[in-house]
Write a structure and sequence with these properties.
Layout lengths: L1 H24 L11 H12 L2 H34 L3 H12 L8 H8 L3 H25 L3 H9 L4 H39 L4 H10 L3 H29 L4 H8 L1
Length: 257
């Protein structure tokens, strides 16, 4: 099944590349604004041979990785604390529902005022957007804990940390991994967006420079790079998720299929 899925995916990608080549060649779109696939591929080759490109890629990955790590750590800790401390969930529910819908891009002016175009501006936006993905999933996971198992653990005299380790965490872990996977994608989006808008070093800033200098093939080539990067991050997150949850019935069922 996986081989067939990979073949279908490759076929779909090939059709897309052919369409991107044919549409401007047929005059349906001006080549100055949407160059054919061949020109984009040539620009991509030039980018890959440029040291500045690799430096920008490193800056983007640095902002993505640091922001994601901070968001995951803070989201897991905050979610567990809110879940185990009596009445804390009710006390924080309205605050969470107020802060969570605020778009991270709305914080760009604040980030610029605080940190300018430094890495910390990117981290502020990445952490804020990714944190909620993890926190909400942790809260959902804790809510899914079997009350019978919880009461059984209490009756056997397990303390708070023992109950977290043996009852709460195994139940919440699938939700946590889902939150991490979602947060990884969101973190990349916000990292590139911050670089594009703020001008912080990275692929986003390089895309903005290519756009303003009318280097259209190079701009599309960089956009392709961000797409490939997102695909690799998603595949990597799913691989980690499957390995971390190898014991879980959902993963065992997926492998069996």
């Amino acid at each position: 099944m996986r081989g067939a899925d990979a073949a279908l995916g490759a076929t779909g990608l090939g059709v897309l590349l052919l369409l991107c080549e044919a549409v401007p060649r047929l005059g349906l779109v001006d080549e100055d604004y949407f160059p054919p696939t061949v020109r984009i591929a040539g620009a991509l080759g030039r980018e890959l041979s440029d040291r500045a490109f690799w430096s920008a890629l490193g800056d983007t990955l640095t902002g993505w990785a640091l922001g994601l790590a901070i968001a995951v750590g803070a989201g897991v800790v905050a979610g567990v604390v809110i879940a185990v401390v009596p009445y804390l969930r009710e006390a924080t529910a309205s605050t969470i529902e107020f802060l969570r819908p605020i778009p991270s891009v709305a914080l760009i002016p604040l980030a610029v005022l605080l940190y300018g175009t430094e890495l910390r501006s990117v981290l502020l936006l990445v952490v804020y957007a990714s944190f909620w993905q993890v926190l909400i999933q942790v809260l959902y996971g804790v809510r899914d804990v079997d009350p019978v198992a919880e009461e059984t653990a209490r009756s056997y005299g397990l303390g708070t940390w023992a109950r977290i380790r043996h009852v709460l965490w195994p139940t919440a872990l699938p939700y946590v991994m889902t939150g991490v996977r979602l947060a990884a994608a969101v973190a990349l989006i916000l990292a590139v967006t911050a670089e594009l808008v703020i001008g912080a070093p990275g692929l986003g800033a390089r895309i903005a420079v290519a756009q303003t200098s009318q280097a259209v093939p190079e701009m599309y080539a960089l956009i392709v790079v961000t797409g490939v990067l997102g695909l690799l991050i998603n595949v990597g997150a799913r691989t980690v998720e499957r390995r971390a949850l190898a014991w879980h019935q959902s993963v065992r069922a997926e492998v069996a299929v």
